[in-house]
């Protein structure tokens, strides 16, 4: 603990499309403590994740994910953890050294994050930690390093579907990614919809904090 994260000064992510769907954007931030909400959505051989932070960083990812790649019961938690990775990467790139509260609604994902923060190395059942193409570390190995070596991170549970604006937005963004993969939402609409939904959710969150 106390060491600077190896990803703390990573370049700010940009909107891009490679395999699957990948959107990273930024809207107007809120003043006050940094809170990051993340969520995932899984269906058949497709998975999607979404995140929204009070810093204004928001995004989603969605792609095909064959079932054989990981234990069936682990697909949800792997995707939940990937959502936390992408959200943290975006926030820490712009706010290195600041305290960040990460809210997740999946208890199994939360257990991994808390374990990693204490130096644990456990991974979801069946998850392959071998190096990816071009010698890259897997996303969850990178997240493990972030959790262990980034100071001032707090991981807390957020009850799903309880009306919390940030959590609801992260859930909606993940589901939007799946809808786009299915072809029911055009990809060209995402650069407009993502910031629109994020801005609305942050407005609702500000009102809830002031109430």
Word description of this protein:
The chain is an alpha/beta fold. The protein has five helices and six strands, in the order ββββαβααβαα. The chain has helices at residues 75-94, 107-117, 139-149, 165-182, 190-210, and strands at residues 21-26, 34-43, 46-53, 57-64, 100-104, 153-157. Strands 1-4-3-2-5-6 form a six-stranded mixed beta sheet, with helices on both faces. α1 packs across α3 (139-149). The N and C termini lie far apart (36 Å). Mean pLDDT is 89; it is low at 1-18.
In terms of structural class, how would the helical and strand content be classed? Answer: alpha/beta
Give the beta-strand count. Answer: 6
Shape: globular
How big is the Rg? 16 Å
The percent of residues in helical segments reads 25-40%
Largest sheet: 6 strands, mixed
Quickly list its features.
single chain, alpha/beta, Nucleotidyltransferase, domain 5, 6-stranded mixed beta sheet
Give a short synopsis of this structure.
This protein is an alpha/beta fold and 211 residues long. The protein is built from 5 helices and 6 strands; from the N terminus they run ββββαβααβαα.
Which secondary structure elements does this structure contain, and how are they paired or packed?
Blueprint: E1 21-26, E2 34-43, E3 46-53, E4 57-64, H1 75-94, E5 100-104, H2 107-117, H3 139-149, E6 153-157, H4 165-182, H5 190-210
Parallel strand pairs: 2-5, 5-6
Antiparallel strand pairs: 1-4, 2-3, 3-4
Helix pairs in contact: 1-2, 1-3, 2-3, 4-5
């Amino acid at each position: 603990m106390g060491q600077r994260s190896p990803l703390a000064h990573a370049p700010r992510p940009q909107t891009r499309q490679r395999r699957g769907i990948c959107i990273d954007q930024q809207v107007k931030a809120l003043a006050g403590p940094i809170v990051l909400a993340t969520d995932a959505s899984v269906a058949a051989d497709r998975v999607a994740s979404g995140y929204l932070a009070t810093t204004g960083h928001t995004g989603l990812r969605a792609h095909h994910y064959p079932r054989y790649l990981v234990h069936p019961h682990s697909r949800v938690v792997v995707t939940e953890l990937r959502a936390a990775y992408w959200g943290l990467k975006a926030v820490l790139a712009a706010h290195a050294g600041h305290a960040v509260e990460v809210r997740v609604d999946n208890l199994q994902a939360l257990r991994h994050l808390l374990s990693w923060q204490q130096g644990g190395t456990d991974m979801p059942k069946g998850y392959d930690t071998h190096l990816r193409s071009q010698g890259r570390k897997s996303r969850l190995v990178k997240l493990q390093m972030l959790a262990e070596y980034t100071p001032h991170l707090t991981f807390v549970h957020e009850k799903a579907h309880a009306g919390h604006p940030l959590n609801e937005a992260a859930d909606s963004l993940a589901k939007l990614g799946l809808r786009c993969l299915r072809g029911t939402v055009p990809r060209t609409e995402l650069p407009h919809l993502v910031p629109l939904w994020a801005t609305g959710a942050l407005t609702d969150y500000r009102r809830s904090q002031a109430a």
